[in-house]
Amino acid sequence: MFPQKSPPPPATPPGYGQPPLQRYASDISSPRITSWSSGLCDCCRDIPTCCLTFWCPCIIFGQIAEIVDKGNTSCGTHGAIYTIINLLTGCGCLYSCGNRTKMRRQYGLPEEPTNDCCVHFCCESCALCQEYRELQHRGFDMSIGWQGNMDRMVPNNGVQIPPMAHGGMNR
Fold first, then answer.
1. Are 79 and 62 in contact (CB under 8 A)?
2. For residues 127 and 119, is the Cβ–Cβ distance under 8 A?
3. What does the domain layout of the chain look like in residue ranges?
4. Which of 10, 20, 44, 125 lies 20 to 30 Å from 96 when distance is taken between CA atoms?
């Protein structure tokens, strides 16, 4: 006669309430998106930094770039390159927008309110102030550079621990 039909599968998914597995390598390696600690136009939160950024952006940019570059290039070198590009072309924003992109990727920050080059081209001072505030919010003392921050974080056993990057480790 006719074979008997098997009962339908259970309604519970195979993971029994556990979150689904990540299927793609990009799901694992991409940092969790977090929001900026302050807005692009929140420059008035720190008037001295705002003034310094407006009158001498090479100093603020150099400090930001040294931290983002993890000390591979000094504050002075980044600031000098920024100044030379600004003096020769008037477009230091082309150099600084790449640094913003690198910072966003390290800390899982969204590209807002628009892409990085537009942000730096339209409002260079505001963008630099926002990046500076973000690094301060993440625990960096901008005045002592990367190495100074690393020395400050050395525990008693002599092992250096870098600042915590929200969203996981990126390689």
1. yes
2. yes
3. 56-150
4. 44
